Amino acid sequence: ELKVEQNPLFLSMQEGKNYTIYCNYSTTSDRLYWYRQDPGKSLESLFVLLSNGAVKQEGRLMASLDTKARLSTLHITAAVHDLSATYFCAVDMGSGGSNYKLTFGKGTLLTVNP
Amino acid sequence: DTAVSQTPKYLVTQMGNDKSIKCEQNLGHDTMYWYKQDSKKFLKIMFSYNNKELIINETVPNRFSPKSPDKAHLNLHINSLELGDSAVYFCASSQAGYNSPLHFGNGTRLTVT
Q1: B35: containing domain
Q2: Average pLDDT of chain B?
Q3: Cβ contact (<8 Å) for B50 and A98?
Q4: How many CB atoms lie within 10 A of CB B16?
Q5: Is 70 exceeded by the pLDDT of residue A102?
Q6: CATH no. for residue B18?
């Protein structure tokens, strides 16, 4: 059974600081996704990582994937309050085509303090 | 122009009742899903349908029965509701091509009293 572990689960950081969220998974996959969820809201797709060495950046967030280490990272640069949310990584073990089977990590609750 | 819409947004009911949640997507996607998010925010897949065909049926009590009348709709019916069914249920859809992640609805918060 695929296990997806995120750490830390809780992250409180100051504005302007940098930090990294880690996502480890137990079974070979080269399809990993990061989502953001604001309180009481839906999940918003942030990054799609589809191959070893993939790196994607959007604003102050950068995600990478190392399929050999079964590790993805979400790096936050110069955090701002608007980044406060819960961040989930998810690994796909679906059968292909449009049939995804995402297993989610437990989420990292990020709080950015002024 | 909501992409994945669920109704109702909130559902409060008593134990033993039967309830349904409806989901519709206007993205033209082939596959739809139900995910359950528990009180600790853990998300777990329940079902997926591709073009009205059941693809994934995780270990879910058979009190939960999904129904897909067409590829744009996936409803979830729950019989004999229990306290442990209280959660947020998210509908999602996806299209072929791994560049396309799941698109989630806004969720239905089910509270069983």
Answers
A1: 4-112
A2: 93
A3: yes
A4: 10
A5: yes
A6: 2.60.40.10
